[in-house]
Amino acid sequence: MDDRLILAGGGSTAVAVDELFVEVARLHRLAAAARDWGRRLASITSSLQALGLTSSSAGFLPSRFDASAVDAGLGGAASAITRSIRLAERLGHDLMSSAERYGRAEREAVERWRFLVGAAAWAVGAAPLYAAATAATIAGATWLAAETNAVPRVDRIDWRPVFSSPEFVSLVRALADSPDELAAGGAHVPLAESLRAGDGLGAPSAAAVLLAAAAMIAGTGRSAGAVGTAGAGPVLVERDLGIVQARTVHPQPGAPLPTAPRGVAELAARIPSPEPGAPQVRVERYGEGADARYIAYVTGTVTFDVHAGSEPFDMTSNLHGVADDAPAANVPPAAMERAVRLALAEAGAGTSSPVLVAAYSGGGIAAAQLAAASDLNVVGAVTFGSPTASAPPSDGVPVLAFEHAEDPVPATGGAGAPSPDRLVVARAALDGAVIAPDDVLPGHALSRYRETARLVDASEEARLVAFRQTVAGFAEGGATEVTSFRFGREASAD
Fold this sequence. Notes:
ten-stranded mixed β-sheet, alpha/beta, 14 helices, globular
């Protein structure tokens, strides 16, 4: 298991382990301290000159007094201070330059992936029959080789190392941004023009197109802007939401309620696990009346069914949440976002109430939407394994996004765009880890993200420290009330 944390974003183009940024900050502090020493030495030198204890003012001193020794000492000290300042500044600059180069190389790698996958998607769209025939030929040859024992049977291959590899994650990220090239190929748009036009699009546009296709298949005949309206059909179409169960815990004598979280690990520990029939949202209230503050904890995707069933934390909700970030999108709010909003309102939160949100997997899409909402007072959000790269928060709202190198789920949000308020914490979580046989996506496990959160709490990196201070300073003492909510979609009228 690799305990190194890789930081990216947050208003910087540098990408590096948190320890590098810590060392750069230390070197900056050392240079500042050395400059202060230089100012103090200059003051001491002036005082000695006023006392006539240096060569420049030693005319009345006894002949046996060696002013040159004082001069040598002062000069040596000044030289040492100057060297210290230059060395600290040069080392700090070199470290940051290496982080900038790493970040630039990473961005170039992402662009190469996008170009290659985009070109392949365009080719498939331009010649679908040829692509299908090629795929069928490869599949047939693989099947024949497996039947003759030339290669292992596909159903005997452990695909988990493939799905958990950083290369697969990069492929998923590029694929999420490439459906526009596929459509352009089908429309016979030249490849160069397709790639240029696709630079401004990405996963949100792809999700919006998919929702539009679902509406057309359902027979609505409407555009993507009307997806999810009444009568649209059950596939990838949102429906009304209702509270199935709300369980509130009030303070009782002898029954202590949880205290306010002091760090990111405590936030991660309180996120509900995504289990069928379990509560999906937990809200903690601290304080009373106008002074009340709220922390919302949001679970992840419970089911991957594309039919909009009773469980709102599903693929329909995921796609609506991602599509909401598309330019000029007019899709209805995702069920997950509506669930969190309803939970906060039921718990007593108003539009001006300070809110902190912590979410896992698909639930992070809702957290990102809330962090960007102008009608709420969200002061910070943290997401674990969530596809939120294309959802920039409101100005000044810090978002800490955890993404494991072996987790393809965050990559389904595409490459996105950098935001000065969104800091990504990445980690290789599976190095040397023991993986259970039934663990399909081990890099996506909430338990492993909780491990990474504990590492963040132990880090001295300035931006991570600042976010921890936001969490620790958000609320004090014990919770006034804790409520767990279970939501469900209402039955379809169709």
